[in-house]
């Protein structure tokens, strides 16, 4: 009994040690992840929670990567640890931000403004003109996208105009004049229609090209079946090898010397045993000995 009690005590101690090591192992994993991505992880960083009240202040001068979610959404719950890990890995940046908006809480107004219908939804870019994120939901792809795209860029927003060139600022002034004249909205709609038409044209023409490629492939196969070509070449190869063997007086099938003398004319094997194997030319001139 004493020995059993000692073993039980030791097992309990070992289990406690393993439990205590678990957080250390998790921390080691996160540090290894930070090392592999060549970035220093911020374990205290969290997605910035945005609302209609703090949106302008929190996003000023930043390019944002924002997730719109609801705690009641199953897919949102699944994505939550990935998004939190993304915020820790990306950290706090001067020009970039990993953010989140609760569409069932204080962020409802922002969700309506951005026309969020399905969740989770991920948008990115200029806080005044967010665009849909079209990449994958995996952590590596999200982090790679954030590193490459959450950078300062030119915008009509006064906080960003210092990033614009003189030419870009002149273009901004031109469009602001169109806005005051009431023509900018119509211009944007016309350009969007042109883009949509170009996209539809591309889809139709790409489909035609794909159908044409399939048709040409079928036509090629119908004209000459690759399997038939293999058979043809096998017949050709067999005949050539047989001819080569015959040149050396060997039977191709057995490898033994041929029973009769043979000659090879081009690629044709002819037996000298035949009466017409080597016919004498009728117009052959007599030799000088015959004349004598």
Whole-Å distance between the termini? Answer: 134 Å
What is the rounded Rg?
41 Å
Determine the mean pLDDT: 79
Strand order in the largest sheet: 1-3-2-4-5
Based on the structure, what is the oligomeric state of the protein chains?
single chain
H/E element sequence:
HEHEHEHEEHHHHEEH
Low-confidence parts, pLDDT < 50 over ≥5 residues?
A: 11-29, 34-38, 272-281, 287-292
Count of DSSP strands: 7
| Helix count, DSSP H or I runs of 4 or more residues | 9
The percent range for strand residues is 5-15%
Helix/strand-derived category reads alpha/beta
What is the helix fraction of residues, given as a range?
40-55%
Q: Which term fits the overall shape? A: elongated
Main beta-sheet annotation: 5 strands, mixed
